[in-house]
Design brief:
heterodimer; A: 114 residues; mainly beta; 7-stranded mixed beta sheet; globular; B: 112 residues; 6-stranded mixed beta sheet; 11 strands; 60% strand
Chain lengths: 114, 112
């Protein structure tokens, strides 16, 4: 099992550009999440999905969009990139059951917006 | 508002010097408390889940405990390979039970 994979590992964007961060998992998890991690701050939830076709906003969704057309994939779309979106982005997945909900994280995408 | 704080922000230990990391939380209904380890440049790696006050879990040199307001991660006789940032997260009850709130982490350095 590859677990949770993310691409790209690094990216530099100019202000106003758009991009999609890719995330895939091969553990047949129903639940998937996108977080951002800024220095000295905890991970902040951007969006999550409880299954194919179902997504919901987390704590910091502004400036981002997601879709979940398959169980395996959960891409994060940045439209009109802004310097405030400079961060490290982590995708995670879990079974989502009450007693089995630990999250498995990908290696992260480091994004810089200049 | 659900909140998680961790202390200390950073901790330096000599190899073999035991200590504890603290995670204090306020949450409107706790579904679970999670501990993760994060190495530089990598994603967090799951360590423990605790569900109710009084619960304890152990793994090698690590032991996690939970009360109604805080959790401790005890590190016994640490080794340099235990150096990492340790993250605490709480899962709050909500519509889907997927509201996770993470603390800022404690950066642990274990010197040989």
């Amino acid at each position: 099992n590859a677990g949770v994979t993310q691409t790209p590992k690094f990216r530099i964007l100019k202000i106003g550009q758009s991009m999609t961060l890719q995330c895939a998992q091969d553990m047949n998890h129903n639940y998937m999440y996108w977080y951002r991690q800024d220095p000295g701050m905890g991970l902040k939830l951007i969006y999550y999905s409880v299954g194919a076709g179902i997504t919901d906003k987390g704590e910091v969704p502004n400036g981002y969009n997601v879709s979940r057309s398959t169980t395996e994939d959960f891409p994060l779309r940045l439209e009109l990139a802004a310097p405030s979106q400079t961060s490290v982005y982590f995708c995670a997945s879990s079974y989502g059951t009450r007693k089995d909900n630990e999250q498995f994280f990908g290696p992260g995408t480091r994004l810089t917006v200049l | 508002e659900d909140q998680v704080t961790q202390s200390p922000e950073a901790l330096r230990l000599q190899e073999g010097e035991s200590s504890s990391l603290n995670c204090s939380y306020t949450v409107s209904g706790l579904r679970g408390l999670f501990w993760y380890r994060q190495d530089p440049g990598k994603g967090p790696e799951f360590l423990f889940t605790l569900y109710s006050a009084g619960e304890e879990k152990e793994k090698e040199r690590l032991k996690a405990t939970l009360t109604k307001k805080e959790s401790f991660l005890h590190i016994t006789a640490p080794k340099p390979e235990d150096s990492a940032t340790y993250l605490c997260a709480v899962q709050a009850e909500d519509n889907y039970g997927q509201n996770f709130v993470f603390g800022p982490g404690t950066r642990l350095s274990v010197l040989p």
